[in-house]
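Full entry
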Amino acid sequence: MKIVRIGNGQGFWGDNVDAPIALLRGGDIDYLGMDYLAEVTISIMMRQKLRDPSAGYARDFIDFIRAVLPELHQRRVRVLTNAGGLNPQACRQQIFAVARELGLSGVRVGVVEGDDLLPRLPELVARGHRFENMDTGEPIAAHLEKMSSANAYLGAEPVIEALRQDALIVLCGRVTDTALALAPLMHEHGWQPGDWDRLAAGTIAGHVIECGPQCTGGNFTRFWEVPDLWNVGYPLVEGYADGSFVVTKHPGTGGMVTVDTVAEQLLYEMGDPTTYVTPDVTADFTSIQLEQEGPDRVRVHGIRGRPKTPYLKVSASYLAGYKTTGTLTVSGPRAVEKARLCADVVWRRLERAGVIFDPAHREVEILAAGACLPGILPPPEDPPEVVLRIGVRDPDYAKVERFGKELAPLVTSGPPGVTGFAGGRPKPQRVVAYWPALLAREEVEDHLRVTVEEA
Protein backbone atom coordinates (compact mmCIF):
# COMPACT_ATOMS: atom_id res chain seq x y z
CA MET A 1 0.00 0.00 0.00
CA LYS A 2 1.07 3.55 -0.67
CA ILE A 3 2.50 5.27 2.39
CA VAL A 4 2.80 9.05 2.70
CA ARG A 5 5.41 10.12 5.26
CA ILE A 6 4.73 13.51 6.84
CA GLY A 7 6.82 15.11 9.57
CA ASN A 8 6.38 18.25 11.63
CA GLY A 9 9.58 20.15 12.40
CA GLN A 10 8.19 23.18 14.26
CA GLY A 11 5.45 23.25 16.86
CA PHE A 12 5.47 27.03 17.31
CA TRP A 13 7.50 30.12 16.44
CA GLY A 14 10.53 29.79 18.69
CA ASP A 15 10.75 26.00 18.61
CA ASN A 16 14.10 24.19 18.26
CA VAL A 17 15.74 25.55 15.11
CA ASP A 18 17.73 22.34 14.59
CA ALA A 19 14.69 20.05 14.72
CA PRO A 20 13.42 20.39 11.12
CA ILE A 21 16.93 19.89 9.75
CA ALA A 22 17.34 16.72 11.81
CA LEU A 23 13.90 15.53 10.71
CA LEU A 24 14.74 16.10 7.06
CA ARG A 25 18.09 14.35 7.26
CA GLY A 26 17.18 11.57 9.66
CA GLY A 27 15.41 9.27 7.19
CA ASP A 28 12.69 8.94 4.56
CA ILE A 29 10.18 11.76 4.46
CA ASP A 30 7.84 13.05 1.75
CA TYR A 31 6.40 16.19 3.35
CA LEU A 32 7.65 18.46 6.09
CA GLY A 33 5.17 20.61 8.00
CA MET A 34 6.32 23.74 9.80
CA ASP A 35 3.79 25.27 12.20
CA TYR A 36 4.72 28.77 13.38
CA LEU A 37 1.46 30.52 14.24
CA ALA A 38 -0.50 30.90 17.44
CA GLU A 39 -3.22 33.40 18.34
CA VAL A 40 -0.70 35.96 19.61
CA THR A 41 1.85 35.37 16.82
CA ILE A 42 -0.19 37.12 14.15
CA SER A 43 -0.36 40.23 16.33
CA ILE A 44 3.43 40.22 16.73
CA MET A 45 3.80 39.94 12.97
CA MET A 46 1.40 42.83 12.47
CA ARG A 47 3.47 45.10 14.70
CA GLN A 48 6.58 44.09 12.76
CA LYS A 49 4.87 44.78 9.45
CA LEU A 50 3.71 48.22 10.60
CA ARG A 51 7.33 49.11 11.30
CA ASP A 52 8.64 47.48 8.12
CA PRO A 53 6.31 46.67 5.18
CA SER A 54 8.69 43.89 4.08
CA ALA A 55 8.27 42.07 7.43
CA GLY A 56 5.31 40.16 8.87
CA TYR A 57 6.43 36.55 8.40
CA ALA A 58 8.53 34.04 10.38
CA ARG A 59 12.10 35.05 9.55
CA ASP A 60 13.42 31.86 11.19
CA PHE A 61 11.92 29.96 8.28
CA ILE A 62 14.29 31.67 5.81
CA ASP A 63 17.28 30.53 7.90
CA PHE A 64 15.96 26.97 7.64
CA ILE A 65 15.47 27.26 3.88
CA ARG A 66 19.01 28.59 3.42
CA ALA A 67 20.36 25.54 5.26
CA VAL A 68 18.38 22.87 3.39
CA LEU A 69 17.04 24.17 0.07
CA PRO A 70 19.45 22.14 -2.12
CA GLU A 71 18.38 18.95 -0.31
CA LEU A 72 14.69 19.78 -0.57
CA HIS A 73 15.10 20.45 -4.27
CA GLN A 74 17.10 17.30 -4.96
CA ARG A 75 15.00 14.91 -2.87
CA ARG A 76 11.66 16.57 -3.70
CA VAL A 77 10.69 16.83 -0.05
CA ARG A 78 7.84 19.32 -0.04
CA VAL A 79 7.46 21.88 2.75
CA LEU A 80 4.06 23.12 3.93
CA THR A 81 4.02 25.99 6.40
CA ASN A 82 2.10 28.91 7.83
CA ALA A 83 5.37 30.84 8.14
CA GLY A 84 4.00 33.30 5.58
CA GLY A 85 2.04 34.95 8.38
CA LEU A 86 0.77 38.33 7.25
CA ASN A 87 3.18 38.69 4.34
CA PRO A 88 3.60 35.42 2.40
CA GLN A 89 4.54 37.28 -0.78
CA ALA A 90 7.54 38.88 0.95
CA CYS A 91 8.46 35.49 2.39
CA ARG A 92 8.39 33.99 -1.11
CA GLN A 93 10.69 36.70 -2.43
CA GLN A 94 13.17 35.93 0.34
CA ILE A 95 13.10 32.24 -0.64
CA PHE A 96 13.79 33.20 -4.24
CA ALA A 97 16.70 35.37 -3.06
CA VAL A 98 18.12 32.36 -1.20
CA ALA A 99 17.69 30.20 -4.33
CA ARG A 100 19.66 32.73 -6.39
CA GLU A 101 22.29 32.93 -3.68
CA LEU A 102 22.69 29.14 -3.80
CA GLY A 103 22.62 28.97 -7.60
CA LEU A 104 19.37 26.99 -7.75
CA SER A 105 16.67 27.29 -10.40
CA GLY A 106 13.28 25.64 -10.85
CA VAL A 107 12.25 26.17 -7.20
CA ARG A 108 8.45 26.48 -7.26
CA VAL A 109 6.88 28.28 -4.30
CA GLY A 110 3.14 28.52 -3.74
CA VAL A 111 1.40 31.24 -1.77
CA VAL A 112 -2.09 30.99 -0.25
CA GLU A 113 -3.79 34.34 0.42
CA GLY A 114 -7.24 35.37 1.57
CA ASP A 115 -7.15 34.65 5.29
CA ASP A 116 -6.25 38.25 6.24
CA LEU A 117 -9.58 40.01 6.87
CA LEU A 118 -8.31 43.18 8.54
CA PRO A 119 -8.63 45.37 5.41
CA ARG A 120 -12.14 43.99 4.83
CA LEU A 121 -13.49 44.32 8.39
CA PRO A 122 -15.28 47.68 8.00
CA GLU A 123 -17.00 46.53 4.81
CA LEU A 124 -17.98 43.18 6.30
CA VAL A 125 -19.39 44.82 9.43
CA ALA A 126 -21.29 47.35 7.29
CA ARG A 127 -22.92 44.43 5.47
CA GLY A 128 -24.22 42.99 8.71
CA HIS A 129 -21.52 40.58 9.86
CA ARG A 130 -21.34 41.12 13.62
CA PHE A 131 -18.19 39.10 14.42
CA GLU A 132 -19.60 38.43 17.87
CA ASN A 133 -16.95 37.53 20.41
CA MET A 134 -17.32 33.79 21.02
CA ASP A 135 -16.58 34.27 24.72
CA THR A 136 -18.72 37.34 25.51
CA GLY A 137 -21.23 37.67 22.65
CA GLU A 138 -20.23 41.31 22.11
CA PRO A 139 -20.25 42.51 18.48
CA ILE A 140 -16.99 43.81 17.09
CA ALA A 141 -18.26 47.18 15.78
CA ALA A 142 -17.27 49.23 18.86
CA HIS A 143 -13.69 47.97 18.63
CA LEU A 144 -13.05 48.35 14.89
CA GLU A 145 -10.59 51.23 15.24
CA LYS A 146 -8.51 49.24 17.74
CA MET A 147 -8.32 46.00 15.76
CA SER A 148 -4.75 45.02 14.91
CA SER A 149 -5.36 41.72 13.12
CA ALA A 150 -8.18 39.50 11.88
CA ASN A 151 -7.48 36.19 10.17
CA ALA A 152 -9.78 33.36 9.15
CA TYR A 153 -8.59 29.80 9.66
CA LEU A 154 -8.24 28.20 6.24
CA GLY A 155 -8.41 24.47 5.57
CA ALA A 156 -6.59 22.05 3.32
CA GLU A 157 -8.13 22.88 -0.09
CA PRO A 158 -5.98 25.90 -1.05
CA VAL A 159 -2.86 24.02 0.07
CA ILE A 160 -3.86 21.11 -2.18
CA GLU A 161 -4.28 23.51 -5.08
CA ALA A 162 -0.69 24.69 -4.64
CA LEU A 163 0.47 21.06 -4.54
CA ARG A 164 -1.43 20.36 -7.76
CA GLN A 165 0.62 23.14 -9.33
CA ASP A 166 3.80 21.30 -8.27
CA ALA A 167 4.90 23.71 -5.55
CA LEU A 168 7.95 22.53 -3.63
CA ILE A 169 7.18 24.96 -0.81
CA VAL A 170 3.68 26.17 0.10
CA LEU A 171 3.48 29.38 2.15
CA CYS A 172 0.27 30.11 4.01
CA GLY A 173 -0.99 32.60 6.52
CA ARG A 174 -3.55 31.45 9.09
CA VAL A 175 -4.13 27.93 7.84
CA THR A 176 -5.12 25.39 10.49
CA ASP A 177 -2.30 23.40 12.04
CA THR A 178 -4.05 20.18 11.08
CA ALA A 179 -4.29 21.15 7.39
CA LEU A 180 -0.51 20.87 7.05
CA ALA A 181 -0.91 17.09 7.34
CA LEU A 182 -4.40 16.67 5.92
CA ALA A 183 -3.55 18.43 2.63
CA PRO A 184 -0.77 16.04 1.52
CA LEU A 185 -2.85 13.01 2.55
CA MET A 186 -5.77 14.24 0.45
CA HIS A 187 -3.48 15.12 -2.44
CA GLU A 188 -1.55 11.84 -2.48
CA HIS A 189 -4.42 9.45 -1.77
CA GLY A 190 -7.08 11.24 -3.82
CA TRP A 191 -9.43 11.82 -0.90
CA GLN A 192 -12.33 14.05 -1.85
CA PRO A 193 -14.33 16.68 0.05
CA GLY A 194 -17.22 14.87 1.65
CA ASP A 195 -15.21 11.75 2.53
CA TRP A 196 -15.74 12.68 6.15
CA ASP A 197 -14.13 9.69 7.87
CA ARG A 198 -10.86 9.99 5.96
CA LEU A 199 -10.81 13.76 6.29
CA ALA A 200 -11.30 13.34 10.03
CA ALA A 201 -8.44 10.83 10.09
CA GLY A 202 -6.11 13.22 8.28
CA THR A 203 -7.16 16.00 10.62
CA ILE A 204 -6.37 13.90 13.67
CA ALA A 205 -3.02 12.91 12.15
CA GLY A 206 -2.27 16.63 11.89
CA HIS A 207 -3.44 17.22 15.46
CA VAL A 208 -1.13 14.51 16.79
CA ILE A 209 2.01 16.00 15.24
CA GLU A 210 1.15 19.72 15.23
CA CYS A 211 3.02 20.43 18.49
CA GLY A 212 6.14 18.59 17.42
CA PRO A 213 7.62 16.39 20.16
CA GLN A 214 4.63 16.64 22.48
CA CYS A 215 3.60 13.27 20.98
CA THR A 216 7.11 11.78 21.17
CA GLY A 217 7.85 12.33 24.86
CA GLY A 218 8.06 16.09 25.25
CA ASN A 219 5.84 17.61 27.95
CA PHE A 220 4.90 14.04 28.96
CA THR A 221 3.39 13.40 32.39
CA ARG A 222 5.76 10.52 33.23
CA PHE A 223 8.80 12.45 32.04
CA TRP A 224 11.18 10.22 33.98
CA GLU A 225 10.39 7.37 31.59
CA VAL A 226 11.45 9.32 28.49
CA PRO A 227 14.95 8.44 27.25
CA ASP A 228 17.37 11.08 25.94
CA LEU A 229 14.92 13.96 26.02
CA TRP A 230 17.79 16.25 25.02
CA ASN A 231 17.76 14.52 21.61
CA VAL A 232 13.99 14.05 21.31
CA GLY A 233 12.88 12.94 17.87
CA TYR A 234 10.26 15.07 16.18
CA PRO A 235 7.23 13.14 14.92
CA LEU A 236 6.41 11.41 11.66
CA VAL A 237 3.06 10.18 10.42
CA GLU A 238 2.88 7.30 7.93
CA GLY A 239 -0.50 7.77 6.29
CA TYR A 240 -2.45 5.09 4.41
CA ALA A 241 -5.24 5.46 1.85
CA ASP A 242 -7.86 3.95 4.18
CA GLY A 243 -7.35 6.75 6.72
CA SER A 244 -5.29 4.76 9.22
CA PHE A 245 -1.85 6.03 10.11
CA VAL A 246 1.18 5.24 12.24
CA VAL A 247 2.85 7.79 14.51
CA THR A 248 6.60 7.26 14.76
CA LYS A 249 9.99 9.01 14.74
CA HIS A 250 13.37 8.49 13.14
CA PRO A 251 15.61 5.72 14.54
CA GLY A 252 18.45 6.85 16.76
CA THR A 253 16.59 9.81 18.23
CA GLY A 254 15.53 10.30 21.84
CA GLY A 255 12.05 10.38 23.24
CA MET A 256 9.46 7.67 22.72
CA VAL A 257 6.22 7.03 20.87
CA THR A 258 3.70 5.10 22.93
CA VAL A 259 -0.06 4.90 23.25
CA ASP A 260 0.26 7.17 26.28
CA THR A 261 2.38 9.87 24.63
CA VAL A 262 0.02 9.98 21.66
CA ALA A 263 -3.08 9.94 23.86
CA GLU A 264 -1.80 12.88 25.90
CA GLN A 265 -1.32 14.94 22.74
CA LEU A 266 -4.82 14.01 21.56
CA LEU A 267 -6.15 15.77 24.65
CA TYR A 268 -4.29 18.98 23.82
CA GLU A 269 -6.66 21.96 23.36
CA MET A 270 -9.61 19.60 23.52
CA GLY A 271 -13.16 20.79 24.19
CA ASP A 272 -16.04 18.46 23.31
CA PRO A 273 -14.19 15.34 22.07
CA THR A 274 -17.12 14.32 19.87
CA THR A 275 -17.11 17.60 17.96
CA TYR A 276 -13.65 18.82 16.95
CA VAL A 277 -14.48 21.49 14.37
CA THR A 278 -12.10 22.46 11.58
CA PRO A 279 -12.67 24.16 8.20
CA ASP A 280 -12.49 20.73 6.53
CA VAL A 281 -14.49 18.38 8.74
CA THR A 282 -15.95 17.75 12.18
CA ALA A 283 -13.92 14.96 13.79
CA ASP A 284 -15.06 12.62 16.56
CA PHE A 285 -12.11 12.00 18.85
CA THR A 286 -14.04 9.37 20.82
CA SER A 287 -13.83 7.07 17.78
CA ILE A 288 -10.01 6.96 17.78
CA GLN A 289 -8.38 3.56 18.29
CA LEU A 290 -4.72 3.42 19.39
CA GLU A 291 -2.51 0.34 19.22
CA GLN A 292 1.17 -0.12 20.01
CA GLU A 293 2.38 -1.66 16.76
CA GLY A 294 6.03 -1.92 17.79
CA PRO A 295 8.80 0.10 19.44
CA ASP A 296 8.09 3.80 18.82
CA ARG A 297 5.18 2.96 16.52
CA VAL A 298 1.54 3.66 17.40
CA ARG A 299 -1.18 2.73 14.91
CA VAL A 300 -4.25 5.01 14.82
CA HIS A 301 -7.47 3.89 13.12
CA GLY A 302 -11.27 3.69 13.33
CA ILE A 303 -11.78 7.45 13.10
CA ARG A 304 -15.19 8.88 12.27
CA GLY A 305 -16.07 12.29 10.87
CA ARG A 306 -19.09 14.46 10.12
CA PRO A 307 -19.74 17.34 7.68
CA LYS A 308 -17.97 20.65 8.08
CA THR A 309 -19.87 23.65 9.45
CA PRO A 310 -21.01 26.66 7.37
CA TYR A 311 -18.65 28.93 9.29
CA LEU A 312 -14.95 29.60 9.58
CA LYS A 313 -13.34 30.69 12.80
CA VAL A 314 -11.74 34.13 12.83
CA SER A 315 -8.83 34.87 15.13
CA ALA A 316 -8.70 38.62 15.68
CA SER A 317 -6.87 40.88 18.10
CA TYR A 318 -7.12 44.46 19.26
CA LEU A 319 -5.07 46.90 21.30
CA ALA A 320 -6.36 46.97 24.88
CA GLY A 321 -4.06 49.30 26.79
CA TYR A 322 -0.66 48.72 28.33
CA LYS A 323 0.97 46.46 30.88
CA THR A 324 4.27 45.94 32.62
CA THR A 325 5.74 43.53 35.13
CA GLY A 326 8.79 43.63 37.35
CA THR A 327 10.51 41.10 39.61
CA LEU A 328 12.58 41.32 42.77
CA THR A 329 14.33 38.64 44.76
CA VAL A 330 13.64 38.84 48.47
CA SER A 331 15.86 36.76 50.76
CA GLY A 332 16.47 36.09 54.43
CA PRO A 333 14.15 35.33 57.34
CA ARG A 334 10.41 36.02 56.84
CA ALA A 335 10.93 36.40 53.08
CA VAL A 336 7.23 35.95 52.24
CA GLU A 337 6.20 38.58 54.75
CA LYS A 338 8.79 40.99 53.34
CA ALA A 339 7.64 40.37 49.76
CA ARG A 340 4.05 41.15 50.72
CA LEU A 341 5.25 44.32 52.43
CA CYS A 342 7.13 45.33 49.26
CA ALA A 343 3.96 45.02 47.20
CA ASP A 344 1.97 47.02 49.76
CA VAL A 345 4.63 49.75 49.75
CA VAL A 346 4.41 50.02 45.96
CA TRP A 347 0.61 50.35 45.94
CA ARG A 348 0.60 52.93 48.78
CA ARG A 349 3.32 55.07 47.21
CA LEU A 350 1.51 55.05 43.87
CA GLU A 351 -1.74 56.04 45.59
CA ARG A 352 0.05 58.90 47.34
CA ALA A 353 1.21 60.07 43.88
CA GLY A 354 -2.36 59.93 42.57
CA VAL A 355 -1.74 56.84 40.43
CA ILE A 356 -4.48 54.32 41.21
CA PHE A 357 -5.01 51.03 39.40
CA ASP A 358 -8.15 48.94 39.28
CA PRO A 359 -7.54 46.06 41.73
CA ALA A 360 -8.57 43.65 38.97
CA HIS A 361 -5.65 44.96 36.90
CA ARG A 362 -3.02 44.56 39.62
CA GLU A 363 -1.10 41.33 39.99
CA VAL A 364 1.11 40.13 42.85
CA GLU A 365 2.77 36.72 42.79
CA ILE A 366 5.23 35.39 45.34
CA LEU A 367 7.08 32.52 43.72
CA ALA A 368 8.09 29.78 46.20
CA ALA A 369 4.96 30.51 48.23
CA GLY A 370 2.43 28.62 46.11
CA ALA A 371 1.74 31.30 43.48
CA CYS A 372 1.89 28.95 40.48
CA LEU A 373 -0.32 26.21 41.91
CA PRO A 374 -2.20 27.75 44.84
CA GLY A 375 -3.63 25.16 47.16
CA ILE A 376 -2.14 22.19 45.28
CA LEU A 377 1.07 21.82 47.28
CA PRO A 378 1.66 23.36 50.71
CA PRO A 379 4.42 25.96 50.46
CA PRO A 380 7.28 25.85 52.96
CA GLU A 381 6.44 27.80 56.11
CA ASP A 382 9.43 30.10 55.84
CA PRO A 383 11.31 29.75 52.54
CA PRO A 384 14.76 31.36 52.66
CA GLU A 385 14.09 33.33 49.48
CA VAL A 386 11.22 34.17 47.18
CA VAL A 387 10.72 36.04 43.93
CA LEU A 388 8.19 38.86 44.01
CA ARG A 389 6.49 39.35 40.66
CA ILE A 390 4.32 42.44 40.52
CA GLY A 391 2.53 43.96 37.55
CA VAL A 392 -0.23 46.27 36.35
CA ARG A 393 -2.43 46.88 33.33
CA ASP A 394 -4.19 50.10 32.34
CA PRO A 395 -5.32 52.05 29.25
CA ASP A 396 -3.11 54.98 30.35
CA TYR A 397 0.51 54.61 29.21
CA ALA A 398 1.73 57.25 31.71
CA LYS A 399 0.26 55.41 34.68
CA VAL A 400 1.88 52.13 33.67
CA GLU A 401 5.18 53.92 33.12
CA ARG A 402 4.95 55.50 36.58
CA PHE A 403 4.45 52.09 38.18
CA GLY A 404 7.79 50.98 36.72
CA LYS A 405 9.59 53.65 38.74
CA GLU A 406 8.52 52.24 42.10
CA LEU A 407 10.42 48.95 42.21
CA ALA A 408 14.06 50.03 42.38
CA PRO A 409 13.53 52.28 45.44
CA LEU A 410 12.55 49.20 47.45
CA VAL A 411 16.22 48.16 47.52
CA THR A 412 16.96 50.92 50.06
CA SER A 413 13.55 52.05 51.29
CA GLY A 414 11.86 48.68 51.68
CA PRO A 415 12.45 45.75 54.02
CA PRO A 416 15.90 44.13 54.16
CA GLY A 417 16.97 41.41 51.74
CA VAL A 418 15.56 42.99 48.55
CA THR A 419 17.82 42.33 45.58
CA GLY A 420 17.81 40.90 42.07
CA PHE A 421 16.51 44.06 40.37
CA ALA A 422 18.04 43.97 36.89
CA GLY A 423 17.35 45.08 33.36
CA GLY A 424 16.30 48.61 34.24
CA ARG A 425 12.83 49.89 34.98
CA PRO A 426 9.98 47.77 33.61
CA LYS A 427 8.75 49.35 30.37
CA PRO A 428 5.10 49.54 29.32
CA GLN A 429 4.10 47.08 26.63
CA ARG A 430 0.98 47.05 24.50
CA VAL A 431 -1.73 44.63 25.60
CA VAL A 432 -2.99 42.63 22.64
CA ALA A 433 -6.39 41.14 23.47
CA TYR A 434 -7.86 38.13 21.67
CA TRP A 435 -11.17 38.29 19.77
CA PRO A 436 -12.49 34.92 18.52
CA ALA A 437 -15.45 35.03 16.14
CA LEU A 438 -17.22 33.17 13.33
CA LEU A 439 -17.81 34.20 9.73
CA ALA A 440 -19.79 32.56 6.93
CA ARG A 441 -17.21 30.52 5.04
CA GLU A 442 -18.18 31.82 1.58
CA GLU A 443 -17.09 35.32 2.64
CA VAL A 444 -13.55 33.93 2.90
CA GLU A 445 -13.42 31.11 0.39
CA ASP A 446 -14.73 33.30 -2.44
CA HIS A 447 -11.70 35.56 -1.93
CA LEU A 448 -8.93 32.94 -1.73
CA ARG A 449 -6.00 33.24 -4.10
CA VAL A 450 -3.39 30.56 -4.75
CA THR A 451 -0.35 31.43 -6.86
CA VAL A 452 2.69 29.34 -7.69
CA GLU A 453 5.81 31.02 -9.03
CA GLU A 454 9.23 29.66 -9.93
CA ALA A 455 12.63 31.05 -9.00
In short: The radius of gyration is 25 Å.
